[in-house]
Each structure stands twice: as structure tokens, then as C-alpha cells.
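HOLO CASE FILE
Compound: adenosine-5'-triphosphate
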Amino acid sequence: MSLFAVHYHELGLKGGNRRRFERVLVGNCEKSLRRLGRRFSIRSVEKRLLVSIEADDTDADRPIVAAAFDLLTRICGVAHVMRTLELPRDVDAVAAAIIAEFSRREQPVASFRISSRRSDKLFPMLSTEVNREVGGRVVAALGIPVRLKGAAEDVRISVLRACMLVSLERRRGPGGLPAGTAGRVAVLMSGGYDSPVAAWQMINRGCKADLIHFHSHPLVDKTTQEKARDLAEVLTEWQYATKLFLVPLAPIQTQVRLHCPEPLRVILYRRFMVRIAERLARGRNCDALVTGESVGQVASQTLENLATVDHVVDMLVLRPLIGTDKQDIIARAKRIRTAAISERRDQDCCQLFIPAKPATASTPQQAALAEEPLDVDALVSQAVEDTEVISFP
Ligand code: ATP
Ligand code: MG
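Model generated. C-alpha cells follow.
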């Protein structure tokens, strides 16, 4: 058996809210760990989850233990995860377990420290006494030096009411809130870096994210659709079930190119995108649209242009990356594992019929005037009708 302690931030979680939050978190851990193909169990013990997995500390099982550790650090709402031993409340037993663990290491342990915390304040020893007693026994048995700063091994002991937990390796999780605790949003997701990260950030605040992708097939190839599917698959690892909507934009783009002034094209595409997204979102009971825009990143993303786009929808439009630098977005894309997909070359719908001089300062009035030759409602309805829906997994 391998045991992990899964911690979540409880700050800001009040009373009954914490119960519900923990219930969803346990469900999400179950969905995630099912991918291991091993038996496991999850218990809630004094504000943490204890996850035991049918896998031993043997060469054969080591990849399973490593995979479990990885999966647990990739669950929204998890602050950190530790590989843990559950022991009786007895310093001798705890010291013996640490000595056994250190002795098994292939590389000798260069230095260590013990940090204990008592959740059970009635335990007869103080934390500092536990540190000293356990540390002393390890030094006596193995001669490994204690280093309070920069120790090679930081051993954390939690004194609970029923047991002591000894944690050996600690990894950060994504933090945030468990997916599925905060309503539903519809994300306009291209094949680029930004919008999948925006989707993830909403998922990591507890939202379920429907994904809406616009493509220009058959005017271009299907690379962006393939990227959208692959991105949906990665995001499904974080929210466990995803609906992807593939919307054909080519008929609209053709009309815009034929009838509307060139500098406004990209803004007009965007206005159609949000109109269609709003229709799809209402059909799914979403409370908001989400995009990956950040101010000033490209010509179309000026404040004026964002306002011109928002003018045509009657739904909250969220832009979680509005103030984020591209470098930080790409770094996050790497951590959540969308980057490798986003960096693939594609034929994006916005690169099609792109104006030589795109407008940076549009107004809703200009855009409305430019759209006058078009039957906007009919084009939107047709696109909604021709949308393909794919479910993951
Ligand atoms: P991204 O990296 O998300 O593509 P970007 O910086 O390239 O963003 P734009 O191409 O200007 O920015 O797109 C702005 C936003 O419009 C995107 O973040 C996304 O939310 C939405 N969007 C753009 N193209 C598409 C598309 N083909 N399908 C769905 N949404 C799109
Ligand atoms: Mg893009």
C-alpha cells in the first residue's frame, strides 16, 4: 500500500461550503485515480484527504506510485500532496520508520530536519519536543546531520487525534477550487496559447468549461480542429468531462470579405463569434463567456475593440488573462500541458483574409454600419445549426 496526504487551502471556505467542496474534491480524486487501473481508497481525516493506493514500494510498482503522485498534484483545489506513512502516536515507532526509510535510499541522505505540527493540542509532547526526540534517534542510528536550513530531507510529522502522519516528499498542486463547484462557462477556444490557459484558469476556480472553437474549413485545412480536440482532451484531464463545439465560420467570413470594409474584418469576425457563442452558451445554461484576450497583445485587442465586440452580447464576458504577460501565459501552458499542442502550426480562422491594416480603434457604431449589408441573425442561426458537438471522454 502507498499512502498520500492531499491538502487543500481552507482559507475562505466557510462552514457548509467546506463539506460540499470536500465532497466534490473526493469525487474528482476518484475520477483522476481511476486512470491508474489500481484499487484505491480515500478517507477524509482532520482537514486532509488520505489516499491509499494498492501499490507497493517495489521496483515493479514504482511507476504506479509515481503516476499516482503526478495525478494527485494535477487536481484543481489541491494545495499540496505528500507521500506519507501512517503510524501510531509513538515517537519510537515514528523514528524507526524514518530510519528504515532513509536506510532504503539508494543515495545516502546528506542531511535532514524534522518539522512537526500538532493538530491535536492535547498530545502530551510539544512539537519542538517531538522534533528533538525523533531527530535524536535518527542521528544516533544513522549519523546523518540535522540542518534546519536547506536540509536535503524535510520530514513533516503531523500529530493527529488517531495517528501520526510522517510525510517525506511534498509537491505543490495547482491550488484553486475543485472543478464543478462554481457554475458553467463557455470558453471561446482557438488553437493558440492563451484561450486554453484562460479555460484552465476558470476550471481551476471551480467552473465547468464548455469549449467553443471556430474553424474556417473548407477554406483552410482541419489543423485547428485537430488542435481543438487535443486541447479538449488535455482540459478533460482537469475537469473530467468536456463538451467541444466546432462551429463553421467560413460562410460568415466569406460574406464579411465580400461586403464589409477591410480594416474592420477581424473585429466583425469576433462579433459573430461572441454572438454565436452566446446562443450556444444559453442553450447550455452557462453564466458567462470567456476569452483569452489580454490588453494590447495584438492590434485587435485594444480596449476600444474589446468594447466593440462586447456591445453585441447580453452576457457577462470574462477575460481572465486581460492583465497577464505572454511569458507567464506560456509558462502556465507548459505546466498544464497545453503548450505542446498550442505551439503546433495551424491555419487559424483569424489569419484568413486578414487586413493589411487592421483597425485598432473601432466603435460599435462603425461596426454596426459595416454589418448593415449582412443578415446577421440568419448567419448566426445557420452557424449554430451547423455546429458539431463532441463529448470527452
Ligand atoms: P489565443 O492564443 O487564445 O489564440 P490570441 O492572443 O491569439 O489568443 P486572438 O487571436 O486575437 O488572440 O484571439 C482573441 C480571443 O478570441 C482568443 O483568446 C479566443 O478566446 C478567441 N478566439 C480567437 N480565435 C478563435 C477561434 N478560432 N475559435 C474560438 N475562439 C477564438
Ligand atoms: Mg490566436
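CASE NOTES: The radius of gyration is 26 Å. Residues 184-392 form a domain with the Rossmann fold fold (CATH 3.40.50.620).
CLOSED: yes
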